[in-house]
Design brief:
Number of strands: 7
Strand content: 15-25%
Strand order of the largest sheet: 2-1-5-4-3
Shape: elongated
Structural class: alpha+beta
Distance between the termini: 50 Å
Oligomer: single chain
Largest sheet: 5 strands, antiparallel
Helix content: 40-55%
Number of helices: 7
């Protein structure tokens, strides 16, 4: 059995995942590396990467750039800018699959109403989404349907109309109500 350090050396690592608005301000960010030790350094990186990429047309396809010895893949939708950063030795296709998984999962979770307002209203879902994709820099999942499914089951809303719930969500709520009535 290898140590965690040996797995980290052979496994692609993500440095950060950023979701910024059209002005370069944070919507949701997650850093997995000590490359930016302070909050000021993180904000400076976000501002710099936004300034470098804001004039590009990354709305239809993922764009790739090398920035400060980091590979950054990014894509825009409406007023949201999605970024995934890896080391300069990481595979761009793997970074792209992480970005595409995050991007598509957010679209699924926000039900195709992807803008800053909806993202802020559903920030809990987006942060859970980040947790399902990467843990400690190591990639866990890139399939948007699986990510959205795990996030949706973790955030069951018992006030949602029955028609908008999945069968498993409805059963979980029914079980919760039955347990509550038996214990009362």
């Amino acid at each position: 059995m290898g140590t965690l350090a040996s797995y980290r050396d052979s496994c692609p690592l993500i440095k950060n995942i950023l979701l910024l608005d059209s002005e370069g301000k944070r919507v949701a960010v997650k850093y997995y590396s000590d490359d930016w030790p302070t909050n000021a350094a993180k904000l400076a990186f976000e501002k710099s990467i936004f300034a470098k990429t804001q004039k590009t047309n990354a709305r239809t396809e993922v764009e790739i750039t090398l920035f400060d010895n980091h590979i950054v893949v990014y894509k825009f939708i409406q007023d949201l800018h999605f970024f995934v950063t890896g080391g300069d030795d990481e595979n761009e296709l793997i970074l792209d699959s992480v970005l595409q998984g995050f991007y598509d999962a957010v679209i699924l979770l926000l039900r195709n109403k992807v803008d800053k307002y909806e993202a802020l209203e559903n920030l809990d879902l987006i942060l859970l989404c980040l947790d399902e994709i990467v843990d400690g820099g190591m990639i866990l999942e890139t399939d948007a349907n699986v990510i959205a499914g795990k996030v949706a089951t973790n955030s069951i809303d018992s006030t949602a109309p029955l028609s908008e719930q999945t069968i498993s969500q409805a059963l979980a709520i029914a079980r919760e109500h039955l347990t509550r009535s038996l214990l009362s």
